[in-house]
């Protein structure tokens, strides 16, 4: 992991527009802010064009989508694709309803930079029967293969998260082994990772390297934040992100 990128994000302070779910919006905004990014979470589609023009990167999270938010997503996608802004899709529980399936299909038709999902969401988007249980992943076989297949099928980068995270561009797939078993117990760590990776995609390096760096960094912060008590994890995570710089992280994760 190139630790100087931690400083670079804080210097750049990328403006990340997140179409978010109402369950984890505040938690995601605080993670972005602690990491040195500027969150913006609009809800009215009338202002989508202007706000997307301001953004360095966009995240579309369908966790609590309704018809108003579908209109917002449409408008954000139109401007983001027109202006070639990085777009991250978090396909929360995509296989759980017809509405989610068709919405995600229409988003993918317009094109995204990265899909970040758990093993079941990525399995579904790779065209494989998944074992999803609502927002949670079921037991999927061969996640590295699923990540690669999904990237090939959807023509974008993929991060399949879980006990091990897999980053794939369809040809190369790398593993990130950090993290903590507390992370799947905190609702929204996946939402946080998706939005955080949007900000990383504004770094002036290749998109694959940016996503790999962001996934490794997020996992390492998550591991350091585990001090044995679930209730402390979120506060520790914010503190570590806020205090991180290339000097304090020197030599980590090489
Ligand atoms: N068992 C685990 N051990 C270590 N890290 C984990 C584990 N499970 C998940 N993580 C980490 O938690 C983060 C979120 O991944 P996860 O797959 O749980 O997302 P998700 O299912 O979309 O979560 P949510 O829907 O609650 O936002 C990632 O950084 C991942 O590395
Ligand atoms: C609990 C929950 N329900 C829909 S989205 C969400 C948060 C995790 O994405
Ligand atoms: Mg999720």
UniProtKB/TrEMBL annotation:
It holds the Pfam family HK. It comes from the Bacteria. Keywords: ATP-binding, Kinase, Magnesium, Metal-binding, Nucleotide-binding, Thiamine biosynthesis, Transferase. Its EC number is 2.7.1.50. ATP binds at residues 116, 161. InterPro entries: Hyethyz_kinase (IPR000417), Ribokinase-like (IPR029056). Pathway: Cofactor biosynthesis; thiamine diphosphate biosynthesis; 4-methyl-5-(2-phosphoethyl)-thiazole from 5-(2-hydroxyethyl)-4-methylthiazole: step 1/1. Catalyzes the phosphorylation of the hydroxyl group of 4-methyl-5-beta-hydroxyethylthiazole (THZ). Belongs to the Thz kinase family. This is Hydroxyethylthiazole kinase. It comes from Limosilactobacillus alvi.
């Amino acid at each position: 992991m190139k630790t100087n990128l931690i400083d670079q994000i804080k210097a750049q302070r990328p403006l990340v527009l997140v179409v978010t779910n109402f369950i984890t919006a505040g938690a995601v905004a605080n993670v972005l802010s602690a990491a040195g990014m500027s969150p913006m979470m609009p809800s009215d589609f009338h202002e989508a064009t202007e706000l997307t023009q301001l953004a360095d990167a966009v995240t579309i999270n369908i966790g609590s989508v309704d018809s108003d938010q579908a209109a917002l997503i449409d408008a954000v996608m139109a401007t983001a694709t027109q202006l070639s802004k990085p777009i991250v899709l978090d396909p929360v529980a995509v296989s759980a309803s017809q509405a989610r399936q068709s919405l995600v299909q229409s988003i993918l038709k317009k094109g995204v930079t990265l899909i970040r999902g758990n093993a079941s969401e990525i399995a579904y988007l790779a065209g494989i029967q998944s074992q999803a249980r609502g927002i949670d992943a079921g037991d999927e076989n061969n996640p590295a293969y699923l990540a690669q297949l999904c990237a090939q099928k959807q023509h974008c980068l993929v991060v399949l998260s879980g006990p091990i995270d897999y980053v794939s561009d369809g040809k190369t797939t790398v593993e990130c082994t950090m993290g903590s078993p507390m992370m799947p117990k905190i609702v929204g760590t996946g939402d946080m990772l998706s939005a955080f990776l949007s900000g990383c995609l504004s770094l002036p390096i290749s998109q694959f390297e940016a996503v790999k760096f962001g996934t490794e960094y997020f996992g390492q912060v998550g591991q350091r934040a585990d001090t044995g008590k679930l209730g402390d994890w979120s506060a520790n995570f914010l503190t570590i992100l806020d205090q991180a710089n290339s000097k304090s992280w020197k030599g980590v994760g090489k």
